[in-house]
UniProtKB/TrEMBL annotation:
Its cofactor is Fe(2+). The keyword GTP-binding does not apply. Belongs to the TfdA dioxygenase family. One of its GO terms (molecular function) is dioxygenase activity. This is TauD/TfdA-like domain-containing protein. Residues 18-376 form the TauD/TfdA-like domain. It comes from Trametes pubescens (White-rot fungus). The keyword rRNA-binding does not apply. Keywords: Dioxygenase, Iron, Metal-binding, Oxidoreductase. InterPro entries: TauD-like_sf (IPR042098), TauD/TfdA-like (IPR003819), TfdA_dioxygenase (IPR051178).
Length: 396
């Protein structure tokens, strides 16, 4: 049976035209045992569409690791390192991940108590909630009515020492059913999004770049992003914005002197735009919570200076200024019309292009709502490629 693809169901809140090239359901193949020819087809489909869904899949942790690794054959360790989330209990990731003992590259995530699971006698899982990370929160009364928020828009990546994974695979083992929830942006826009319980929300980095006005496209194509050392430890004392798209500038980040030992050479400095290796398209890919500085190159020779921002280049080190510019560039693309909220079913397998999309945990579960997912991504064998000289000339 040949591989078949079908569009993902676009929610009524989304603009179908904006999501026409995002996401496909793949039918006719078993993702746990792809032939080389089938894998090549799946590989190219993923880079073309950003996310692939396989329904009703039986997939072992070993098969999930092998599938993830096939996208980057020399990669070996989990995206944050095997058996650690930066080795630090201070990291905001620490409570969210439990390692599958025999396949340390695969993590168990979810909510509630899970027993006798893939070599784990028991695991207490905690669904990340905006209530512990955002500066403000939805009131308990409104939570009871089903209102919630995005948790944290992000890329799966350590952002220190290790290169950002190319692909993440998410497999729904146990998926609780419940009432739909309503995401509030709570940023003065009045925007809301009706979502399935426990959805994973995605936005396409191509759209994030494509909808920018020319002056911000010029900034994007010229910018490199410098992340903080051990960014998940650094950001842990701080609070996020109500949209989950970055951190409040309150000066609460951990001092570099108090971080675990770090080396300047291991700090990640990455392009703001990451080039798709199959399509050649540019994706605006920034993890806004971990950014410390922006390095913007001057306009190339011959570029039009009128109306240009930072025509002579600049190195922005003021966190508030850095974050405000990033937010201005990223916020339009998380409007409801651009968001794909996946409606999870048990045995769903979703692959997403981690260098081409941003995603976030959404919503909240009650303690007795048990959810168990397997997640795998691998620290890549190289860093993402940025815009070419031709790209810079075109967009700057």
């Amino acid at each position: 049976m040949a591989i078949e693809i079908a569009p993902l169901p676009v929610p009524p809140t989304a603009d179908a035209a904006k999501l026409k090239d995002f996401g496909r359901e793949v039918k006719g193949v078993n993702p746990g045992s792809l032939s080389p020819e089938e894998f090549k087809e799946v590989h190219d489909l993923l880079y073309k569409y950003g996310a692939l869904l396989f329904r009703d899949v039986v997939l072992s942790p070993e098969q999930q690791f092998a599938l993830t690794k096939a996208f980057d054959p020399t990669s070996e360790s989990y995206g944050h390192g095997n058996k650690k989330t930066e080795g630090e209990k201070k990291s905001i990731l620490h409570p969210d991940l439990k390692t599958i003992p025999r396949v340390p590259q695969v993590q168990l995530i979810g909510n509630g108590m899970v027993y006798d699971h893939e070599g784990l006698a028991e695991a207490k899982l905690k669904h990340p909630s905006h209530t512990t990370f955002h500066k403000t929160r939805v009131s308990p009364e409104d939570e009871e009515k089903g209102f919630t928020r995005y948790y944290r828009w992000h890329i799966d990546a350590a952002l220190y020492d290790l290169s950002p994974p190319k692909v993440t695979t998410l497999y729904g083992v146990t998926v609780p059913k419940g009432e739909r929830q309503h995401v509030r942006y709570d940023d003065g826009t009045g925007e809301e999004l009706d979502v399935p319980l426990g959805t994973t929300a995605f936005v396409d980095g191509r759209n994030m770049f494509g909808i920018l006005p020319p002056e911000l496209k010029s900034v994007a194509v010229r910018t490199k992003v410098k992340y903080a050392p051990h960014p998940y430890v650094w950001m842990a004392p701080a609070h996020a914005l109500s949209t989950g798209l970055g951190i409040m500038s309150e000066g609460l980040e951990m001092s570099y002197d108090d971080l675990p030992p770090w080396e300047e050479s291991k700090i990640k400095v990455l392009p703001m735009l990451w080039k798709n290796p199959v399509t050649g398209e540019l994706h605006l890919q920034v993890h806004p919570c971990g950014v410390a500085e922006l390095i913007i190159d001057p306009l190339p020779a011959g570029a039009k200076r009128e109306g240009a921002l930072y025509p002579d280049g600049v190195h922005l080190k003021d966190l508030k200024e850095v974050r405000e510019l990033l937010y201005k560039m990223q916020r339009p693309a998380i409007a409801p019309s651009f968001v794909y909220p996946h409606d999870w079913h048990e045995r769903d397998l979703v692959l997403f292009h981690n260098r081409g999309v941003l995603h976030t945990v959404v919503g909240a579960f009650k303690p007795d709502q048990v959810r168990a997912f397997h997640q795998c991504n691998l620290a890549a064998s190289d860093d993402p490629k940025g815009p070419s000289e031709e790209d810079v000339k075109q967009w700057a």
